[in-house]
Amino acid sequence: MKANAVVIHTDEAPKAIGPYSQGIALGDWVFVSGQIPLDPATGELVRGDFADQATRVLANVDAIVRAAGSERRKVAKVTVYLTDVGRFAEFNEIYAAFFGDHRPARAVVGVAALPRGAQVEIEALAER
Question: Please, what are the domains in the chain?
Fold first, then answer.
């Protein structure tokens, strides 16, 4: 990686559970690794309903974006992984409330399973 790549870490998001960083800042961009609904304080999966998990994942992404010196309205692209695409409409409501009038480019992908039994995972790209 080039010398100007900076590893992003914040205690407001869960520690990486594998050989990766929470995020990488490279030039004007922040690359946020896929976040699942882990509680940053305990490292445990948030138990509760889908809405609780989706809200936690978005909060984790937001914490990493902020730690990189950016903000939610500068998120340019989001990729969402759902284990149940039947929750697409419910996710859209949570996502719209989180981003407000900002509308990043986005892809939603249905997957068979996610780490630790999570129902949702999100990765993002933001401008610094």
Answer: 5-127 (3.30.1330.40)
